[in-house]
Amino acid sequence: MSPSWISRGTGKHAGFLFDTLSGFRYSGAKFMLRRALLPRMLLGLAPLINAAGQTPGRGLPNPELIANAANFQPPKLGELAAKLAAQPDMTGLWSAIQPVEAGVGPVFDPVHAFWPPQPVQGEARFGPMPGTYIKDIPYTAEYQKKYLALIQETTEGKSRDTFAACEPYGVPRMIGDSPVEFDIIQAPEVMFWYNDYGRTERRIFLDGRAHPTGPIPTGESGRTYSGHSVGHWEGNTLVVETVGMFGGYFDETPAPFSDEISMIERMRLIDANILEIQMTFTDPVALQKPWVVTRYFRRENTGKTKRGYLDLNDRPCVPNVRIDENGFQVALLPQELEALEAPHAPRALTPCGPAAPAVGPQTTW
Q1: Which residues have a Cβ under 8 Å from the Cβ of 159 and sit 6 or more positions away?
Q2: In degrees rounded to 5, what are phi and psi of residue 245?
């Protein structure tokens, strides 16, 4: 088989090879092993080829089936709809509620934040003022030292935020740090969350499945920006466990976490349009003990019967910064931006979304 189906990863995936057929990521040694096993793998597919020489999914439907399609009675959604009807209604567009004393810019735990002097009235700003930080995160000594150093960097005008370089917010940042709304689409056995600004989506599986235990197509470690979420209902409370997230920052202050983090959410409606989300974080590398943060969100309705939803934003992301060898943002020059936007320019292997302003540090340790 031609090696043309192999591509080399970049960024977080540098040093790995990707099988573009299966989506798996491999280090050099594992790639060579896979090539050695390829003939056996193909032989293993032999029983799946039917007597007509077709593999499953190949060949058009039977002509008789097509001819009688008008008489077919499709299964109805009654059973699934009944499941959905029994669930509390969390569908719609949700905006974070900020405490009265909060400063400018989103912070993951604004109730327990230190706010330095704020900008003059009328000055526009996306992120928090330099020197803003969250108090009393139960960090280990190592991560407390890192956090203090990162806070100091913001006061020196430095930023490690990779969001402006086209990496998505991911989870948990999309929940507690977004300056704009996210929406929830509710189905009987899965929930879809979408944040167009943060270029992040997540799925919460409610069908009883467990977290993956073996290799999955998202990479050798199985980690993704949003992780893997499974949930169940306890009365009117949705309990969700999320694992497998890349390490990063909770917000722009920037409070770090490692790639060993896991999160338990307890979500409930405390009013028709007020959603409470209690998040409990466990991180054996960064935290001495679990950290609990509770946030509140308001549903944005467009009328008595219409819900607000986000439009799908599928424009390609054009970065306005690059990350230098020290992990800091460096503004791209106009000619560099023109090259990235040129039709003939090679498309970078980065998440897609709208070009975004530099709004604070975010990277992995």
Answers
A1: 153, 328, 329, 358, 360, 361
A2: -95, 150
CA–CA separation, 205 and 81 (whole Å): 16
The tens digit of pLDDT for each residue in 58-103 reads 889 999 999 999 999 999 999 889 999 999 999 999 999 999 999 9
Instruction: Give the HSE-up count for residue 2: Cα atoms under 13 Å, Cβ half-sphere.
Output: 3
361, 207, 175, 246: which is closest to 12 by C-alpha? 246
Dist. CA 335–CA 222, nearest whole Å: 37
Residues in the chain: 365
Euclidean distance between CA atoms 21 and 221, whole angstroms: 18
- Give residue-wise pLDDT tens across range 113-164: 999 999 887 665 678 999 999 999 999 999 999 999 999 999 999 888 888 8
Domain chopping of the chain, boundaries: 3-70, 92-299
Q: Write out the two tokens for 122.
A: 């009328």
Tokens of 221: 């470690």
The tokens for 54 are 């077709």
